[in-house]
Amino acid sequence: MGTEVRPSVVGELVVAAAAGRSEVVGGGGDWSTRVEELHPASAWRMSVVERLQRLQAEIDQRPAEVPQAVHVAMRIAARAVELRSSPARWYSGVNIERAWRAVHLADEVLVASSPDLPSRMAAIRATVTRKLPERDPRARALAPAAFDVLGDAARRDVVLVALRGMHQASHDAATAVRSLRNRIILFGLLLLAINLAVGWLTALHDHMLPLCLGTGADAICPTGTATPTGGDVWWLQLMGMLGASIAVVVLLLRTKPSVVPYTLTPYQAVVKVLLGAILAVVGVLILRTGLLHDLVGNQAALLIFALVLGYSQQLGTRLLDSFADQVVQRAQPSATTT
């Protein structure tokens, strides 16, 4: 690309292609080598590396100069995928988000500086309109009526700004998914602590949380005895978890496939199971008040009631499931490099 057609925004970052490639680790080679050695089971890292390979393939095929920002961003992404994970890095998502932000920066600058930009406009418009609202000024500036009357430098600036806006929308959506995942995890840990505390305390003190229906020889207890035992709560919790596991199957069947680097489904499933355990215990306590008199006449009926209560958590968690689906779909990645 000659100097006369260089865009004003990216023009200052352009260096000779040969000099730029000499700085890139793995330039023209296999970007996945180190990643496959260090993180052979990391799917998101492989996705980033595959995108780096595509960027490198376009760089290798381009006969003209390439902006230096592309090479710098690719090196940042490569370093991010090679870094080892830790609980703190996993929770904050720093490795994932740094890698994808760097890849998107390289993609933006490479596409905006492309010598065949006019032939790529149809794909660029289609990709941008999937992420930006139709009335967004950055998307409207790409419309042929407004775009075709601009000079070459202005066109490249418009493309660069639109791609940045599109990728920023993706970054914000991915951050929202991570934030929701972390909140679900914290809520799940709270439910786990509650279940363990209730089970442990009642195991030590049999009569602290009486869950037997009736009195005397006619008493119906979860474990099948005629008197409260330390295992009553644990057994009810297990039945509630079993009922909630049916809702987990429903969740798996209705969850749409996603390539977002953050996964929500396993944590949603854990919340359902733990919440089902709590509801099973609470439901039996309600039975003891006499509000549902004569509903349960034997141990089998009591356990089935606990199963149903475990599944009943679906009434509340389905709202979380719907919200999670919306957040994940907004975070679906997009690409303009082909």
From TrEMBL:
Tree of life domain: Bacteria
Transmembrane segments: 184-203, 234-253, 269-289, 295-312
Keywords, ordered alphabetically: Membrane, Transmembrane, Transmembrane helix
Protein name per Swiss-Prot or TrEMBL: Uncharacterized protein
Organism, as annotated: Actinokineospora cianjurensis
